[in-house]
Amino acid sequence: MKRVLTALALTATLGVAVPAFAADGAEVGKPAPAFTLKDETGKEHSLAQYQGKIVVLEWTNPECPFVQRHYKVDTMQNTLKGFDAKKVVWLAVNSTAHNTPDKSAAFKKEEAFTYPVLQDADGKVGHAYGAKTTPHMYVIDEKGVLQYAGAIDDDPRGKNVTPVNHVKTAVDALINGKPVPAATTEPYGCSVKYKS
Amino acid sequence: MTGMRSSRWAVLVCVLVASAVAWAEPQAAAKGTGANDEGNPRLEATLLVDASQVKPGDTFRVGVRFQMDPGWYTYWKNPGDAGLSTDVSWDAPGVTVGELRWPFPSTFRSPDGFIVSHGYKGEVLLFAEARASEQASGNLTLSAAVDALVCEHRCVPAEILLSRTLPVGAETVRDAESTALFDAAQAQVPRAPEATGHTVALKLDAQTLKTGQPFTGTVTVSASDGKVLSAVEPDFFIPERIKGITRMGLTLESPGRFQLKGDAAPNAPKEEPRFKGVLRLGTAQTGYQALEVDLPLASVEAVAVAPKPVAKVAPFNPSAAAAQIQTVMPAGEGGVSLGLALVFAFLGGAILNLMPCVFPVLALKAYGFTRMAQEDRKHVGVHALGYTGGIIGTMLLLAGVVLAVRAGGHSVGWGFQFQEPLFVAAVCAVLVAFALNLFGVFSVGTDGTALSSKVDASSGVARSVGEGVLAVVLATPCSAPMMGTAVGFAFAAGPFTVLAIFTALGLGLALPFCALVMVPGLSKRLPKPGVWMERAKQLLGFALLGTAVWLVWVVGGLAGVDGMARLLAFLVAVGLGAWLYGLAQAAEGTRKVVRVAAAVLVLVATGGFTLRFDGTAPAARASTVSEAQPWDEAAVAAALKAGQPVFIDFTADWCLTCKFNERTVLTREDVRAAFTQHQVAFFVADWTRRDARISAKLGEHGRAGVPMYLVISPSTPDKPEVLPELLTSDLVIQAVQRAAGPVADAT
Question: What is the mean pLDDT of residues B155-167?
């Protein structure tokens, strides 16, 4: 009987993980769209391989002033530094149509950060997530469920002395087993330059 | 805006100092450039005033004229999917400056149409009403710190500081040139409908917005003079950023009548979002009429499309599977596509076979298999078809009833037929008759009569059909996992979908048995028939009687003691009828008579015994779980306000899965301890009798039947967690811990 019940519970799990189809990218509270992308060195990264860790996705484009501003003050690097490396993975994604691995490598060297820059020049993953701006941030929990989508912080103009870092808030909440306070915020930045 | 004033001012000082250092100019000019794109400024900004002299206490207009290079644009107050709105901060001692006025913007789309933003190409004048103070004298200094993002394919930020003086005099002297510019800009600024003799009305198609779901409605614009501009240009409606609304748009249906379509955010707040934005009637030929609309939409209802996946499922990864499905399946309405719902219905039907309420039928079938194994394959096929036909037929009948009842405006749900005492009584009677048949009181067709020398396939098939019908009838009070979703989908869908879903359910229910019959090797592995079969058959009869006892108790919940008594009396009559039928069937029925008499005696004795009970009212029944309160939205809200986590058990007397969960999980010591520890407010929503409120609540969560378990955290009252339909104690305890808030160790 117990085995039957376990089997039933399993099936129940299957049955209740009904995805809702968001017409416009990924939806918070739902499984994040799966992807496999090569980084600037040609190494493949898939969302599935990071199951069990919190994954932060950062849509980036070094040509965008907003991204430049954040890299000038090391917003992304400092945010990542505040996390336990065993629990959190940071992946940048570039969906710019004319981006190349070399450009990403140069950007990485220039800004001296260590996380991979996933190459999404055809924009498939960007569209799956509904990434609209650079930067546009997503936080995915250990179970692969999207828990935050939106801006990196509450300071679009870069003029706040003490901006609230939404990604840090979200990751800290997840690590402490709490619900993310603001699961979505309005992203700001340049538009993602998808291929047309 | 005003909160930023001080930091803006600091910036202003910095910029001032910086520009003073850079240009050695003591003061900013009324004209400036910005957005340097590799040495080429893309934006020119000019500070304009519509007066060359102002009288103390008089009003004038002050604004910034933006002129962009061809192809470059700045953003509106809601930039849309990307970009940044233009910001103008005023600093004008002795002058009060009002809100910035925004002419109706253009809409820009990325080449693939994926990113939509709003703003101005070419040039725009953003302005504000200003008023010189009564004490003003000499020269007023007007300064504006402009912060804009200027984009083409690239984006370049611009920070420009502008300043000019305005002499104070005895009279206000208008400046003709700039007044023309201000007037032109003002004509493009959307105005409140009342100010233009227009009325805007909004009618939503639903009472409430449902989180994460689309909504529709109608917007009508009428004018007091009856003349509403009938034509519109593309992008005539631009919504503001509204909390809780992910998307909203209008399409022109007929002059002055628009269809509203939008999507509520999955995490939309409870408070009423508004229909807020700008609407521009007319075309370049007819001239424009821009209106600023701001109307209440409707309150938001939280809807969970599907419960969260269960934690700790070792080898299976639901999120990945779901994500896989997500990439493959087309989008459907209401969260689940029809194809997926059909798959779930089919699987749900198959799982129904394992549910406690189908046990008697399963037992019957087990007996049937052994009987079948003896017949040749052809007959087996016919039987399988008969059984499946019986199931599908009954399912379709149910679907028909659902449609009919729904057409009548009643709310129905899975298992609804068990809210009707007459129906329960009928099922009871069938069970008793079946049991008597198994005891051999009478026979269906030729089964069990020594007289028949030949197996009459057709009558045997009738039996199979009957078993199919019975399987469905008994299965319905159990809402198996997955079926909740599938049936929930069906109940909210069109007639065709309802029929399709029920057919899929039926096929699923018939599948295991058919597989056993149709796969040659399987039936051979069943035990050989013999005397034991006769015994087993009789034993199964008692199982059916046990089920009948449960149904009698259900009727007790529905119709009280008197109802139960009436039912039992009726069952006795059924027994008597069966007996008489048996007598008529066989001549040498003396031994049978004895059996029937015994059976009737047992029935009557049981009836007499049961009648001595007090009819357990539903309220008392709730006491299976300690300190349960009857479910009530107000009470739930009060408990959440008091900071208590809330657990709601949606249950019904006739739902065996519910009873199973209550007895084996919800009343366990450790679960109860967790409830006590976290001060959980436990509510029971009893659906034994028809209750529209409960049906509506089930529907909100995409369910059509019980059980349903909601766990609500006081910190996120609008996001209840829906537990799976089969509970385990760990699952409940963890959910309660999650809802209670801080957990020392995240699971």
Answer: 89
- Distances from the Cα of B456 to the Cα of B398, B439, B449, B582, angstroms: 30, 21, 12, 19
Segment (H or E) for B501: helix B495-518
A134: pLDDT confidence band, cut at 50, 70 and 90? very high
Residue B466 structure tokens: 């009957």
| Whole-prediction pTM | 0.50
Report the 3 state secondary structure along B692-736.
HHHHHHHHHCCCCCCCEEEEEECCEEEEEEEECCCCCHHHHHHHH
Contacts of B88 in chain A (CB under 8 A): none
Nearest by CB: B153 against A10, A30, A193:
A193
Q: In the predicted model, is pLDDT for residue B407 greater than 80? A: no
How would residue B493 be classed by pLDDT, with cut points 50, 70 and 90? Answer: low
* Residue pairs between chains A and B whose CB atoms are closer than 8 Å: 207
Domain ranges in chain A? 24-191
Which positions ≥6 away from B676 have C-beta within 8 Å?
Answer: none
**At A71, is the secondary structure helix, strand, or coil?**
helix
Q: Which residue has the higher pLDDT, B73 or B416?
A: B73
Chain-chain contact of B329 with A176 (C-beta, under 8 angstroms): no
Q: Can you tell me the distance from the alpha carbon of A93 to that of A70, in angstroms, rounded to the nearest whole number?
A: 15
Q: Assess contact for B414 and B399: CB atoms under 8 A.
A: no
CB atoms B308 and A14 under 8 Å? no
- Alpha-carbon Rg for chain B, nearest whole angstrom, is 37
Q: Is B511 on the interface with A (CB under 8 A)?
A: no
Mutation site, A6, A28, A188, A191, interface B, largest B CB count within 10 A: A191
pLDDT grade for B263, boundaries at 50, 70 and 90? confident
Point out which residues pair with B630 in neighbouring strands.
B684
| CA angle (B253 as vertex; B247, B258 as ends), nearest 5 | 45
Q: What is the pLDDT of residue B194?
A: 86
Q: Phi and psi of A49, rounded to 5°?
A: -70, -20
Say if the Cβ atoms of B320 and A51 lie within 8 Å.
yes
Residue B564 CB partners (closer than 8 Å, separation 6+) = B552, B553, B555, B556, B610, B611, B615
Nearest-CA distance A114 → chain B (Å):
26
Q: Report the distance separating Cα B193 and Cα B221, nearest Å.
A: 9
**B383 and B516 Cβ atoms separated by less than 8 Å:** no
DSSP per position, B651-678: E-TT-HHHHHHIIIIITSHHHHHHHHHT
Q: Which residues of B touch A12 (CB under 8 A)?
A: 310, 481-482, 724-726
B675-721: pLDDT as tens digits: 888 888 888 888 877 677 888 888 777 777 788 899 998 888 888 88
Q: Which residue has the tokens 């003003």?
A: B136
Q: How is residue B405 written in tokens?
A: 């009842």
Altogether, the residues listed in chain A come to a count of 196
Q: Which of B375, B389, B394 is nearest to B514 (CA)?
A: B389
Q: Which CATH superfamily is domain A24-191 in?
A: Glutaredoxin (3.40.30.10)
Long-range Cβ contacts of A158-166 (<8 Å, 24+ apart):
A158/A69, A159/B4, A159/B7, A159/B8, A159/B11, A159/B147, A160/B7, A161/B7, A165/A75, A165/A79, A166/A137
Tokens at B169, concatenated: 């005099």
Q: Measured between CA atoms, how close is B445 to chain A, in angstroms? A: 36
A-chain CB neighbours of B326 within 8 Å are 19, 21, 31, 33
Among candidates B567, B386, B387, B350, which has minimal Cα distance to B478?
B350
**Hey, what are B431's tokens?**
């069970």
B/e letters for B355-384, b = 16+ CB within 10 Å, e = fewer, are bebbbbbbbbbebbbbbbbebeeebbebbb
Asked if the C-beta of B481 comes within 8 angstroms of chain A's C-beta atoms, the answer is yes
| Residue contact B265–A188, C-beta within 8 A | no
SS3 of B70, please? coil
